[in-house]
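Input record, target 12 of the design panel.
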């Protein structure tokens, strides 16, 4: 069992993108990693692809998921599944922060 609070989780800054590993192998979830990303206004994750899927839940803000060659609007409450080997990118398209939870297999957080 693990009980924690997001305020106690280390923040890793990558430009205007902040990443926190909420739950993973160290907390007892041996196969997956749940991460929280916070993007400042106008910021984006890198456009990339890899051999594992993403499961994403948008917590707050307005953004865009670049997927299958086009931008797709998303906002707080949006649910996303990104296929393995698909070129993708998440961008903050609104005012304020854009926050989302992203779950990947443990090899996706290496």
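The sequence produced for target 12 reads:
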């Amino acid at each position: 069992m693990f009980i924690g609070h997001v305020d106690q989780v280390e923040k890793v800054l990558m430009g205007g993108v902040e990443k926190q590993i909420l739950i993973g192998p160290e907390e007892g979830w041996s196969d997956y990693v749940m991460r929280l990303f916070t993007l400042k206004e106008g910021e984006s994750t890198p456009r990339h692809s890899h051999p594992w899927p993403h499961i994403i839940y948008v917590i707050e803000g307005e953004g865009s998921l670049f997927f299958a060659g086009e931008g797709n609007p998303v906002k707080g409450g949006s649910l996303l599944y990104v296929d393995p080997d698909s070129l993708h990118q998440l961008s903050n398209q609104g005012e304020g922060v854009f926050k989302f939870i992203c779950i990947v297999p443990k090899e996706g957080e290496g």
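The chain has a mean pLDDT of 95.
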